[in-house]
Every structure is written in C-alpha cells, then in structure tokens.
Design a protein that fits this description.
- This protein is mostly helical.
- The protein has one domain (about 5-15, about 20-260).
- It is built from 16 helices and four strands.
- It has helices at about 5, 25-35, 45-70, 75-100, 110-115, 125-135, 150-155, 160, 170-180, 190-195, 205-245, 245-250, 275-280, 285-290, 305-315, 325-340; strands at about 105, 320-325, 345, 350.
- A two-stranded antiparallel ribbon has the order 1-2.
- Strand 3 and strand 4 (about 350) form a beta hairpin.
- Helix 3 packs across helix 11 (about 205-245) and helix 4 (about 75-100) crosses helix 15 (about 305-315).
- About 40% of the residues are buried.
- It is a multi-pass membrane protein.
- Its main location: membrane.
- It is found in: Membrane.
- This is Fatty acid desaturase.
C-alpha cells in the first residue's frame, strides 16, 4: 500500500466505499469517532488529539475572562489583531510553508526556534504536517483528511478524526514519518516509544514545551498590559484555534465548484483564493495549490502576503538562508497566457484580448 494511503489513522467509517467513492459519514458517526478518539482512558495512544483540544479548552477560559472582565475598545482591537492577523500569519509561516512544504530554510536552529515560538503554542506540528502532505496528494479525493465535500463537521473535527498518524505503522513507514518531520526540530519518539504512545512526538516533551511557551507569553503580555492584555490575547488565540478548523472547508469552496476565471488558476481541485484569509494570513489557497513549495503565494499586486513579508525580512536579516519564490513562474505559465487568450465580447460579437 502506498505510504500516503496508509500513514493516517483510518476512521471507523473509512475513507471510501466499495465503489471507491467518498464516504460521507453522518454527524452522529463523526461525533462518535471524535469522542472515541479523545478518550485517553480507552487508549493512551489518544493522548495527542486530547492534548490538542485540552489547549483549546484552556484558551476558552481566557476568552470567557476577556468577555466578562476585560472587554474594552483597546482590548478588542488587540485581540482582533492578534487572533486574526498574528496567529493566522504565524500558522502560514511556520506550520504551512516551513514545517509542511519546506518552502524556505533557516540559517540555524536558533532562528527556527524563534519562529516556532513567535506566538502562543496551539497546534501540534505532527497533526498538521503529515496530514497536510496527504491533503495535497489527495486533494478533494477520498482519503483527503479534510475533504470539504463530506461536510463542515468532517473538516472541523478532522484534527481528531482524520489527521493523527496511524498507530500500527511499520518501522519503515515510521522512519518515513520521521523524515517528513525532521527539519521541524520536533524531537522524534523512537519506534518503541511510538508503539507505546502512537505518536511522533513524546508527550512529556510536548507538555513541557507547551508550559514554557505559555508561561513566557503570558508573562510578556502581562508586563506590557497586565491581565487585561494577557487574557485578551490568550482568548484571541483560542478564538483562532477554533476558527482555523473551518478554513479548509471554506478554502475548498464548501465542496462546491466556485472557482472564478482569472482568479483561481489551479483547476485540479476545488481550492479558491479568498480575500480575507489572503490579506490576514497570506492564505491565497488556490495559488498555494498551484505552487505548494513557494514561500510566497500572494502573486498578484493586490494579494497581500504577510507571511511572505516575514520570510523575506528574515532573509534580509540573514536568519533565512534560502527560499523558493514561484511568482515569476505563475506569471509566465498562468497569468500572462490567460490575459492573451482571445475571448468573445457578447455586446459587440468581436474578439478581444
């Protein structure tokens, strides 16, 4: 069986039916799978999805404190900028373009560590990276861990139901997982440890990293603005942690054909370029599916790409040694040829360019 067909933990309802068609589970089936996989009493190998949602639950407490005790015009503004722009852009910089696609390289591990911890720690790298490789291999096909055609809940709860790595990988396949994760700096379990915990990352290391990151950022925010600022920004991180789980459902047009001529050039899947995710996080998703290994996905002049600006700045500072930029290839292969294709002006029945 090909590696990417086997690397993710198969849900109880499966990826496809006997005819090879996408399985669209009921909401009841999705929730049953979700709570089963969060049950650490059932199996300690469920620890990573449980840990991921434990962070969300903790951040929700900060969000409640923010709403009840610290709501003001300046905390709302700070929360908006942090939750919508900073958290989103960092997710694109770190999880998406570096950890998954290796679109750029750091000069040394110091700058990698700084970039990894630029924001509040929320998403485990392992859950994001491996499943995202599968997503690009099977985009909008059966086996895509967040296939929008299977519905909102299928995507929203995918980090638990579809994205964790399989618990029964051979040693050879587990070594391939290690190769996909090695550059991230996340220390790998040995194969024996993987068999015990069912994960690439060791729970003790993950928990320690989480505690240190949160202590640092709460302390930094407290020094800048006391509990009002700290609670507001941690609450904003929680809001982002929930909202980001909706992205691929929207980024793939809710499973429908919504691509627009002259805007969405990749027609191999249902991905679309959206203005809001593009501006606040550099997620020009259709462009990204054209050139997934590009450190820039905002190719057109209006396509603001804050993640790219950070990468380029780090390159100027010497922190990023190399990067890939496919803007030139995009213009040569897609944008310019599209502009030159003759089309019919329905008003004058004449050919125009």
């Amino acid at each position: 069986m090909p590696f990417l067909d086997n690397v993710l933990q198969r849900p109880s309802y499966g990826w496809k039916d006997e005819d090879g068609e996408l399985v669209r589970p009921t909401n009841s089936q999705i929730f049953k799978e979700f709570f089963s996989r969060l049950n650490i009493l059932k199996s300690r190998k469920n620890w990573l999805p449980f840990f991921s949602w434990l962070k969300v639950a903790c951040l929700a407490v900060f969000f409640v404190f923010f709403i009840i005790h610290y709501l003001s015009w300046w905390t709302i503004l700070a929360a908006f900028i942090y939750g919508m722009v900073i958290m989103g852009t960092h997710g694109t910089i770190w999880h998406h373009r570096y950890c998954t696609h290796g679109a750029y390289k750091f000069k040394n591990i110091f700058w990698r560590f700084i970039t990894q911890n630029l924001t509040i720690n929320v998403i485990p790298e392992e859950i994001y990276v491996i499943s995202h490789h599968v997503h690009h291999s099977k985009s909008d096909q059966p086996g895509d861990p967040y296939n929008a055609q299977a519905g909102f809940l299928y995507c929203f709860l995918a980090d638990v139901n579809h994205q964790p790595i399989a618990k029964n990988l051979s040693e050879g396949d587990y070594n391939r997982v290690k190769l996909l994760m090695k550059h991230t700096g996340v220390t790998a379990n040995t194969y024996v440890q993987y068999q015990k915990w069912g994960s690439y990352v060791n729970p003790y290391r993950a928990i320690l990293s989480w505690i240190l990151n949160w202590c640092f950022w709460y302390g930094a925010f407290y020094l800048l603005g006391g509990n009002p600022l700290a609670c507001s920004l941690f609450g904003a991180a929680g809001f982002w942690a929930v909202g980001v789980r909706t992205f691929n459902y929207d980024g793939h047009a809710k499973g429908k054909d919504k691509q627009r001529e002259g805007i969405d050039y990749n027609q191999n899947d249902k991905s679309i370029n959206q203005l809001w995710p593009g501006i606040v996080a550099g997620e020009w998703h259709n462009n990204h599916h054209l050139y997934p290994k590009s450190a820039r996905s905002g190719f057109k002049p209006y396509q603001i790409d804050l993640a790219w600006y950070y990468i380029k700045l780090m390159n100027h500072l010497g922190a990023v040694s190399t990067y890939r930029d496919n803007k030139k290839q995009f213009y040569e292969r897609y944008y310019l040829p599209h502009k030159m294709v003759p089309r019919i002006d329905t008003n004058t029945a004449s050919l125009v360019k």
